[in-house]
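Practice problem: Cytochrome c7
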Amino acid sequence: MANKQNAGRLVIAIAILMIGGIITVLFTSYIIDEQEREEYEIYEDGIQTTWTPGEAQFEVEINRPTGVPMVDSGKKNYDGEAVMVRCNTCHDSKEMNLLVTSSSQLKDFHQGLVFNHGELSCLSCHNADNYETLRRSDGQVIAFQNVMELCGQCHGPRMRDYKSGLHGGMVGHWDLQRGGRKRNNCIDCHDPHAPAYPQVMPVFPPKVRAGKTVKTETNH
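Answer key — structure tokens:
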């Protein structure tokens, strides 16, 4: 008889524990749902609004060149800083020599320009009528700030990778629900006249103390 009473009490205790566990799980789930629901609320112009989970709440800012394109004149000012000049300072007063295809043919300026960009020449990208703008292969004029549009017409696969986040540097958030993102421009990393990255050589291996040997394992 005593054994039956003990067994009954054990069953009741187990049932109470199970019910308590279920209540705890449900209560915790409710608290989490409430917290998530609060995260879905944002303030816009001082008015509280709601948004759909997954929507981008912040923008992607792409770094763009500002102002007009400038070139180093090779001279210094009184503070020792490089004197920069606008392209049209010279190109507005000199007739363009359409036969020039490389910097080695130049005599007055740009002699030290390293140019290694396939079979392209200056006028493949620069607008002969206004050297402070660019031109596409179809002749359409592009503002210097939109240089990525010019790059994308030939470097399509790279532009596709850039748009998907596989190419190009960035700072900020992958999740645009948490914060904004700032991305580099093509010419932030690539020299437009010689865009290929130089090969990177590996560093020297670590030095081994005298009398010590380094074991290497090769997996096949």
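Discussion: The two ends are 70 Å apart (CA to CA). Students who identified this feature from the tokens alone can consider the problem solved.
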